[in-house]
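Could you help me review a protein record that somebody else here produced? What it holds is a sequence and that sequence's fold in token form. I need someone to confirm that the token line plausibly describes how this chain folds. Take the sequence as given and treat only the tokens as open to question. This is what I was given:
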Amino acid sequence: MAAWGCATQSDVNTIDNRLAEMEMRDAQLRQNRNALKSDLEQRNQELRKQSAGLRAILEEMNEDIRILSGRLEEMEYSIKKQQQNAADLESKREAKLDSLAERTEENSVRLNRMEQYLNLESSKKQAAVITPAVPAKKPSSEDEIYRSAKQAFDQGDFDAARQGFQEFIKRYPNSNNADNAQFWIGEIYYREKWYEKAILEYQNVIEKYPKGNKAPAALLKQGLAFSNIGDTANARLILQELSRKYPKSNEARVAAEKLKTLK
């Protein structure tokens, strides 16, 4: 009985030890499972934050694309409208010239009839003086094209002036007035408050005609254009460059006054 009792106690101890070991393993497993669960929850939170951030960036990019698309459509509409206005103006001018030519021809016929009726004596030279000349269709020479475009600019006909100056630069790129024509194109856009386009046109003056008489004025107006669109940093840089390159110019004095107001 004693031997049976010792064996039984040993078995009980063995079972107890195994149970204790299993409980420790179970506790360790629960601890590992809880740690893994916590780690997974933390990673899920991080992934949700990253996903939310990516969605926000994507929405912002989509909004920027929509804004840019809208601006592009506005620019395309504006360009088409300007082209249509230029075409309509040219058509009206051609119609006026044709009408004037017809009236001139009619007047010439009437004058000839009156001379015949009155039996007036006239030589070929006199007839040439009496008969009005048919007006030219378009200015053709270098000076005529530039003068016509500048006159349109002074009269506020910016579409005709822009077209004239562009034609002048295309036909006479090496003319002494080429830099002036390029500058006036920038002025047209500036007066139309299309400052971004004006900046680009002024840049053409600065790059293509650095030694021309319009380079200081182009720098000044470019700086003012940047200021008008709220880009004070570039406005300040351009005006400072003007003061450095052309310190004795009138434009440099204006730039110095403008720099005092830029913050």
